[in-house]
Design brief:
This protein is of the alpha/beta class. It has 7 helices and 10 strands. Helix 6 links the parallel strand 8 and strand 9.
Amino acid sequence: DKKKLMVVADCSLMTSGLSKCGREILIRAHKSFNIALGGWNHRVFPHPYPYFIYQIFKGSQHEQASFREIIFNFQPDVVLCIGDAWNFEVYGQVFDEWKKKRNSFRTVAWLTVDGQITNPDFARLFHQFDVVASFSKFGAEVIKDVAEIDNCEVIYPGVDSKTFYPFPEDAPWDAGNIIDVKNSFVVGCLNQNTERKNLVGVMEAFSIFAKGKKDAILWLGTNPQDMASPQNLWKVSKYLGIQDKFRVMRGCNSDRKSVV
């Protein structure tokens, strides 16, 4: 029988990096494992992926209870958590409860540590996993120092070459995939459209900066209508009066007139 693997990450229908990491792993793993996704902020829509997506509302008061129900329903052999360490704090107790039911159960964390950690409580978060890996060498060193462990694997997330690739040197600027940015002053920001990343604040700051600057353009690498955010950034741009200066990165919106 196939082992059961559950990945916990952003919902596969989202456009975030964590969503893509989880999605690429599950697509490749479904032939070797019985798989499922615990999808943060999942909305129950039809999807093309070869696995079931459980709904998890990250940060809600019912998150731990719903996660417990998901674990005891799917009964995984392995859980792989992808994200920031603090996102998994409420899962530790559920892991312990399931290990009492299945001794062979193992937990793995692939963590996006991108800064120094001074809070010693993070050691407890790291230790609730059997295996901890980092997106970078820097993150691995931070985890080893805080958790006082000897080994932390480094697994690079890689690059989606269908989305990010060198622009042909001989391509004309008016080729349709780059619009009105030649001779412009471009302010760029690459982030998921969530409240924590505060892209509305970025847009507000740009609206002040751009006053009187006809060549200023704000270029966001994000989904302006991300399910994880209560803010529709197209509407925000109109409210701030910068809709003519607002662009989103190719791959984040299907409207070619708005694509850089």
